[in-house]
Amino acid sequence: MELMEKRRKHFAALRAQEKRNRPPTKAQKRTQMSTYLKHMGGYTYKQLKGKSFDEIQKLFDKEMKRVNTFVAVGSEVQESKEKKVEGSEETAKK
Predict the structure, then answer these.
(1) Among 36, 31, 28, 65, which residue's Cα sits nearest to residue 51?
(2) 77, 16, 92, 27: which is closest to 56 by C-alpha?
(3) Spans of all domains in the chain
(4) Could you give the CA distance from residue 47 to residue 65 in angstroms, rounded to a whole number?
(5) Which of 18, 19, 33, 70 is the S-S candidate for 60 at Cβ 3.0 to 4.6 Å?
């Protein structure tokens, strides 16, 4: 009996794991993207309400690209860009 109980619990755990690992549905993705756009993109519920999934996806991709390419003002990357710009300006003046 103990073996049967262990098997039942094992397969129940596998079924639960499969449910957790399912990809989100289109409606769930739309909701997640809308929530992100409301908090990070500054959009309101009214602005997003009438838009289709594809339109929201384009806005989301645009916002994610902006966030992913962000460079902090005091970072090394920003300073190296400023040096390159200054160097090219000096050569242009000559």
Answers:
(1) 31
(2) 27
(3) 2-93
(4) 20
(5) 33
